[in-house]
Amino acid sequence: MGNLRSLMLTWAIATAVEASEPNWFQTVPDNYAGPTPTGAAPFLAEVNPAPFGQATYIPNAPLETSEPIAGANGRNIFHLMGDLSPYFSPSEGFGVDEYPLPKGASIGHMHMLQRHGARYPSAEEGLGAWAAGIVNSGAVFTGELEFLNDWTYKLGEEILVPQGRQELFDSGILNFYNYGHLYDNSSKIVVRTTLQSRMLESCENFLAGFFGLNWKKHANILAVIDPAVTGDEACTKAGETMLAAMEEPVGTWTETYLKDRTAKLQRLAGDYNWTVTDTSHAQALCPYEAISLGYSPFCQLFDYQEWQGYEYMQDIEFASMAGFLNPTGRAQGIYWVEEFLARVEGHFVDVPANTSGVNMTLDTNPVTFPLNQSLYLEFTHDANIVSVLTAFGLTQFADFLPATGPPKNQQFVTSKLVPFAGRLNIEIITAPHKVSTRRSRKISSDDYVPGTGKAQYVHFIQNQRTIPLHASFKECEYREDGWCELETFLKVQKQSLANAEYPYACFGNWTMKEYGAARDGVPV
Ligand SMILES: *[C@@H]1O[C@H](CO)[C@@H](O)[C@H](O)[C@H]1NC(C)=O
Ligand SMILES: *[C@@H]1O[C@H](CO)[C@@H](O)[C@H](O)[C@H]1NC(C)=O
Ligand SMILES: *[C@@H]1O[C@H](CO)[C@@H](O)[C@H](O)[C@H]1NC(C)=O
Ligand SMILES: *[C@@H]1O[C@H](CO)[C@@H](O)[C@H](O)[C@H]1NC(C)=O
Ligand SMILES: *[C@@H]1O[C@H](CO)[C@@H](O)[C@H](O)[C@H]1NC(C)=O
Ligand SMILES: *[C@@H]1O[C@H](CO)[C@@H](O)[C@H](O)[C@H]1NC(C)=O
């Protein structure tokens, strides 16, 4: 009897604890994984045409990317695929060089926002339906399109492909080499992602790279339902304008840059009425087949200039969907800016409810919003990263992108910002003295300004290249290393919430103007 009573008591306490505090870190079973159809297993060894009739053979690593592309002259078209580019670090950077930390300086915190890895297309992209139309058309394709006569569609939907798994595993390893020391192994850290299959698996693959296969000993995954910002406070107008804003300019540019190619392919399509939409789907199949199957015959249908055109199409798409050219661009990303500021300042998010998209239930609970970590690792989507850069006010990336063609000195380039597994690392640096704005190339004490005291800096790194903060904020003095004094940066960011105009941008009674009217990420 006594035993039973104590058992009941234990159960009652356990239930009470459970009721007040859910098991935040449970990710199995996952009822919110989203679509998960897998594709055909690749057989690259059997179908790989390399070395493409040429003498030089370049082994696949793991993708076969050595296809001869007209006009490429050794340049890589896989860096011109916008958000479908396999991960790469842009060799030309964002305007400044990298410098070593001066002697005695240290990195105290790192905040990371990491995109998922390479994935299959979503059903909405229409590639499966397009393929069915081609296969059932009965048309006889000739010349460069001849391969379509016995081609079949082999892709799944939405989930990570092997290349995506590798990108996140590699990022985990890279980030461990860079920041492993910041992990205090006496306690687990909380990392954040969503329950969508590719998001959860990206997080897990990263952690396997970062900690090894025993990562569960070191990290708890807080996975929310995708999209992370939902409910009554989610930005209604963003949902309404993200696609609407890009349709017209993307359509106009696509008609322009694919016009000649469409005319050429039309002549190879027999009875099939080949339009610019077909050309555009054929081009998208190059990155998707390459990451899914290792190689795609679609890539060679286009010359280098048409790949530059494809990148620019993606640049217009992301700038107008989630960047400064969308009237809700700042509002979409302000939640993460507020979370970052709260962590740096060491307090819970304390903005008024319904003004930022922040989930106040999660962000005022120390279990789900810890403030004592040195590493903050978070996983997200391409558009979120773009909107976060926008909400910070990084106007370096606010250039207008005409639907008629690229501007000179274009800064907003989707593949440089959010390729698959693209990432933002923000370092908080502490130095014993102010660091000179002119930097030396070697680790030394000579970089300090004599007679000055302790100083802190913030350093933004996108895909392993520094984003110079002085390029966007006049308050941040020009520095060769692109850092900004933390105090100055925080002062600037005090305005970010107001600048995002969340209540008006998300719930206001405004109508969308023509493309190019919005240039600052808020409604005009
Ligand atoms: C934590 O790190 C210390 C020093 O590297 C090591 O001795 C210890 O075994 C580690 N503990 C765990 C739980 O990994
Ligand atoms: C906040 O997150 C929790 C846990 O994921 C969820 O149950 C709740 O609906 C979210 N609230 C809002 C307003 O999105
Ligand atoms: C947030 O504000 C908008 C506009 O005033 C309103 O429609 C919405 O219901 C609010 N959400 C909450 C959770 O109060
Ligand atoms: C081919 O498609 C275009 C665009 O949909 C259409 O305008 C045109 O009439 C079609 N041509 C034929 C011969 O069906
Ligand atoms: C942070 O504080 C919580 C609550 O005291 C504790 O459980 C956790 O281990 C701490 N985390 C770190 C990284 O110190
Ligand atoms: C929204 O604005 C339009 C155009 O100015 C106006 O006709 C309409 O009445 C407004 N709706 C509300 C709910 O204020």
Hetero groups in this structure are: 2-acetamido-2-deoxy-beta-D-glucopyranose
Counting DSSP H or I runs of 4 or more residues, the number of helices is 16
Q: Give the second-level CATH assignment, the architecture of the domain at 77-119 and 159-234 and 327-507.
A: 3-Layer(aba) Sandwich
Question: What proportion strand?
Answer: 5-15%
Query: Which residues sit in consecutive blocks of at least 5 with pLDDT less than 50?
Result: 1-18
Largest sheet: 6 strands, mixed
Instruction: Give the end-to-end Cα distance, rounded to a whole number of Å.
Output: 72 Å
CATH class descriptor of the domain at 77-119 and 159-234 and 327-507: Alpha Beta
Overall pLDDT score: 94
Helix-strand makeup class: alpha/beta
Helix content: 25-40%
What is the CATH topology assignment of the domain at 77-119 and 159-234 and 327-507? Rossmann fold
**Extended strand count:** 8
Shape: globular
Instruction: Encode the helix/strand succession as letters.
Output: HHEHHEHEHHHHHHEHHEEEEHHH
Question: Which superfamily, in CATH terms, is the homologous superfamily of the domain at 77-119 and 159-234 and 327-507?
Answer: Phosphoglycerate mutase-like
> In angstroms, what is the radius of gyration?
25 Å
